[in-house]
Amino acid sequence: MAPNRTVEIVEVGPRDGLQNESALVSTAAKIAYIEALVDAGVRRVEATSFVHPKRVPQMADAEQVMAGVPRDRGVSYIGLVVNERGLDRALACGVDEANVVVVASETFSHRNQGMSIAEGVRSFEAISGRAVGLRVTATIGASFGCPFEGEVPVSTVASLARQCAEAGADEIALADTIGVGVPDDVKILVDAVRAVTDLPLRFHFHNTRNTGYANALTAVSLGAAALDSSAGGIGGCPFAPAATGNIATEDLAYALRRTGVHSGLDLDKVIAAAAFIGTELGAALPALLGRAGDFPGSLSAERAR
Amino acid sequence: MAPNRTVEIVEVGPRDGLQNESALVSTAAKIAYIEALVDAGVRRVEATSFVHPKRVPQMADAEQVMAGVPRDRGVSYIGLVVNERGLDRALACGVDEANVVVVASETFSHRNQGMSIAEGVRSFEAISGRAVGLRVTATIGASFGCPFEGEVPVSTVASLARQCAEAGADEIALADTIGVGVPDDVKILVDAVRAVTDLPLRFHFHNTRNTGYANALTAVSLGAAALDSSAGGIGGCPFAPAATGNIATEDLAYALRRTGVHSGLDLDKVIAAAAFIGTELGAALPALLGRAGDFPGSLSAERAR
């Protein structure tokens, strides 16, 4: 694939960013956070998760959040869906996209999803078959490594991508769930997945070991259509709040702009949205741009002269 | 240039890492920090700076540090030298290398060095001509951008590299002093500098806007011989202590190992050295590997099967 000059940023702060936070964020604050992100130019937002409220209490207000977000701004709202019951809820409240996770390691799949890899594929097939009118993403969790089993075979990831594509996925997302990958992993996985499907590729990186931005820029250079990120870089493990979040939307957008890749985001407004949710969480944010300040301009004429 | 399978890590924590810290670190602690780094496998250490003690009080004990570091472990010790008086001190206490900074923007050069760019080159020539027996590095500061002037022309950086090479430099280092660059900058600068000199290239990245690791891995992929980093990622601006340090040695070494690039470092021991200096500074460290934990293994057979 050729490098993209435009990439979609999928803002996942409202879902992946918040879901591990033990302090409950009010529905009003979640809606205000999403409104600020939309105002900053985000056009795909993973707004919530349709899981059992006992499992993820932070996402118990999924319907209320979806009822409150702006629907007249051209934004595509994504709900994380883990089973058919979740799909029913997602359909009922009018999300635009369903994100369905299939995990690429048996142990992690059992612990996280309560099912085997093969059962995960069947669950994806069932959800995809009934998700009429929704764009459906198959996110392959632990694509870059498993906290229990270590290395994950590339062939497993490619096989899952192929099966999900055959089952009707509209997009394949590769997730470095535990933040262990490096750019060479990205290249290897892109090659392997490209060999089995032409679907748009999306990537989900955590900056757990400081490799997330390198991976994201590599993915873009290899033709990724979309990247997940969270304003402020929220989304860390609850035991190390400022350490292991998603890559931050503002830092990613800075690097993309300087690389000459269009993301459509207003950096100052993303920083403001991050500051808002940081205040709600009462936590220091892993994102750096808000602290360091912008450095205006981009490569091109200036650098090449 | 072809990608390297080995890269030298130049540990700059004892110099760039500590120099902006307002709380004075004892000479004994500096020596213990360096000993821990040497024990972790570091073979090039920027140990101190020979500047006026009133300008950088933290480096006033340069001679005492150099008198205390282990000299029987095959380590090359580097001193930052800004003028001939500093060179005399460096020679007197037996450093192995002199690192001399020439800044690529007029305003920054005047503010940081008290001289114009052209005067900086003449100063480099004077120091290089008298640095008998020392390896001399020309570090081109603000190569990726200037906090006062904005974009820095690539032609200025290339011209400085050529002039310093002609003046006897043994190595050219390109420094992203304010942490604004992206991987495409690295490519542009490598191409421009490679057109004027075949000297070994070293890079100095700060992670100020979360692009430092991406830049470092790109530099290695383009044949960089050496990378600067600081254990723990210390070295930030005193006004934002945990935000804007050098790239962290342990996080860099992790990414290199997983990429299949040999750095010779023991990650656990680097983490321990970082924890030691973090305790001395009483500050949280920007490095992430010590918090996240290692993920053993590297690309290759495991990933390719």
TrEMBL record, chains A, B:
InterPro entries: Aldolase_TIM, HMGL, PYR_CT. It comes from the Bacteria. Residues 7-271 form the Pyruvate carboxyltransferase domain. SUPFAM superfamilies: Aldolase. Keywords: Lyase, Metal-binding. GO terms for molecular function: hydroxymethylglutaryl-CoA lyase activity; metal ion binding. GO terms for biological process: ketone body biosynthetic process; L-leucine catabolic process. Gene3D superfamilies: Aldolase class I. Pfam families: HMGL-like. NCBIfam families: PRK05692.1 (NF004283). Belongs to the HMG-CoA lyase family. This is Hydroxymethylglutaryl-CoA lyase.
